[in-house]
Amino acid sequence: MKRIIYMDNNATTRVAPEVVDVMLPFFGEVYGNPSSAHTFGGEVGKHIRRAREHVASLIHASPDEIVFTSCGTESDSTAIWSAIASYPEKRHIVTSRVEHPAVKNLFEHLAKKGYQITFVPVDRQGRLDLDYLHDHLRDDTAVVSIMWANNETGVVFPIEEIAAAVRRRGIVFHTDAVQAVGKIPVDVQQVPLDMLSLSGHKIHAPKGVAALYIRKGTRFAPFLIGGHQERNRRGGTENVAAIVGLGEAARLAAAKMKTAGEKSSRLRDRLEAGLVSRIPKTMVNGDPRHRLPNTTNISFEYIEGESILLMMDELGICASSGSACTSGSLEPSHVLRAMGVPFTAAHGSIRFSLSEHNTEDDIDYTIEKLPDIVARLRSLSPFWNAEQAA
Amino acid sequence: MWDYTPAVKDHFMNPRNVGVVENPDGIGEVGSIACGDALKLTFKLDQDKRITDAKFQTFGCASAIASSSALTEMIKGLTLEEAEKITNDDIARYLGGLPREKMHCSVMGRDALERAIAHYRGVAVREKEGEIVCECFGVTDVEIERAVRENRLKTVEDVTGYVKAGGGCEKCHDQIREIIAAVRQTTAAETPALSSMTNIQKIKLIEETLDREVKPSLQKDGGDIELVDFDNNTVFVQLRGTCSTCSASQITLKNYVEAKLKDLVSSELVVEEAQAH
């Protein structure tokens, strides 16, 4: 098999071998339903309980504040729908301009349903405009949902400050922490938030499992109504194997966070420095002082991201792009556009997101190969040629 | 990841004819960095007025680069009259097909070719005909109408895939739906009375008639004609090639073109030469 250099961990991660191991029995002999009255099923319930404890512990929550869901999107939707259902008289909701589609598209949907929306802007470095947020909180604001860390740039918002400001106004605060959990310390004792989304497959658990933290005392209306599972907060038979996997992944993440973070940030910095120094007209997007340890978003001016990705793909290098062409939409990344990254750079942005599984070799190989790819594409580009001629 | 054909991948990884022809006879530039793709096409003619060399520079995704590379290969050895018959669909077919969302890459190729040929003929590149419908990408009703007609498009998504219109803020989707409905109506109907037709329908009918009845005979003499505008039963056209310098062009215009249109479309029509820009 061709060599794969995987630097797309903000999209998804490899399931850790330890996680696979703890899941396997649930595809075999341990197939009981935790809701059953018999011991055979009840035993399974114990494993779910342990998983819940691990997930709670990762974010310093209490286990009964954790609800398992099927994906980050479900957690986000559950939180936001719950907040607006709990305060039906409030018709204003707030988010940022750089949210993941799981939140962004739900807000746009709610706008069509008649909700008034405030999208809080960011600056050129991707930092949230806190004054704007303060000024736009209203008595009829039902919920504020602002991500903890950005998936495209890795920029981390001052979530403690944001949550405190929102809470002071008595408004429900939800954060999509899918990219933050497992990568940086997340402590719900420190941060006065009401609800928080996290996802399994971003932290080396399988796809199809996630969780929503709901602080004790928060008004809550379930999204999936059915059985009594998850203490009536999310109907549906538990995805047992995946939940157990998420528990183990959370345990590993808590144990390894510091070393994994240090390793990936060292590799990330090396990659960034190597590319920026070897390739002219290259810039890093996002505030370097407040960033996830594993993420860098780099713009190669005058060329287009999909072309870069495809040429990297030929060499087995996996990354992603905020380019319009990768998604089939025509607008480049709404995140980079919100930051005011010029078109010359927004179309040619590449996100590298590392994990502890990356090696120095991966980085050196990428630094060796990318300059040639960029040079080849620039030799085709009329804008690059015009720029060179000028 | 897009499902590109082997031909698209080949033309992307090994693009043919990259660069700018020295002392080109024709230059065509389309697109912009804001739009996400752009193409500069240059060609050179030999003594027999055949394209002997063609080169491109492209900013864009893999299918934009592949479409440009394919276009340069396709037009080499052709006369301009042959080359201008190439449609975006021909480019896509040469590549074994393009994903529907990427068809605009082939449209960009055709547009650049059209501009390069216009440049060679010394006719000013037509200003965009019609009204802007899609503000985000600056696409006019005439462009949308043409794409719908030539490619038998049925949905807004189709239109976005071909000419980008509707791919941004989505405010123009209703208008695009109306254009699609109008085109589909005219293709279904026979030839209704001019007075009952919308402007777009009229333009379409006039353009079809020019293509079918007028252009072939002008082209025999190395000339050509392009519909530039239509307003209040006045058809504005631009004469091209040998026609544009012919002293008898006014006679051609009135006695031949206008007569044909009066005969085949409506007796109310008047033909005028558009002011060169």
What does this structure look like?
The complex is a heterodimer of chains A (390) and B (277). In chain A, 42% of the residues lie in helices and 14% in strands. Chain A is globular. Chain A has 2 domains: 5-12 and 257-389, Aspartate Aminotransferase, domain 1 (Alpha-Beta Complex), CATH 3.90.1150.10; 17-253, Type I PLP-dependent aspartate aminotransferase-like (Major domain) (Aspartate Aminotransferase, domain 2, 3-Layer(aba) Sandwich), CATH 3.40.640.10. In chain A, α1 (17-23) packs antiparallel against α8 and α2 runs parallel beside α8 (240-278). Chain A has 14 helices and 13 strands. Chain A is of the alpha/beta class. By secondary structure, chain B is of the alpha+beta class. Chain B folds into 3 domains: 6-121, Sufe protein. Chain: A (Alpha-Beta Complex), CATH 3.90.1010.10; 132-188, BFD-like [2Fe-2S]-binding domain (Arc Repressor Mutant, subunit A, Orthogonal Bundle); 196-273, GMP Synthetase, Chain A, domain 3 (2-Layer Sandwich), CATH 3.30.300. Chain B is 45% helix and 18% strand. Chain B is built from 10 helices and 8 strands. Chain B has helices at residues 6-13, 62-75, 80-83, 88-94, 103-121, 141-151, 156-163, 173-188, 199-220, 249-264, and strands spanning 26-32, 37-45, 51-59, 132-134, 139-140, 223-231, 234-241, 270-273. In chain B, the strands form 3 sheets. Chain B has a 3-stranded antiparallel beta sheet with strand order 1-2-3. In chain B, strands 6-7-8 form a 3-stranded mixed beta sheet. In chain B, a hairpin with a 2-residue loop joins β6 and β7. In chain B, α5 (103-121) crosses α7 and α9 (199-220) crosses α10. The mean pLDDT of chain B is 86. The A-B interface holds A 302-307, 310-311, 313-314, 323-326, 328-332, 343-344, 347, 379-385 and B 1-2, 12-13, 15, 18, 20, 29, 33-40, 57-62, 64-65, 99, 101-102, 136-137, 160, 164, 167-168.
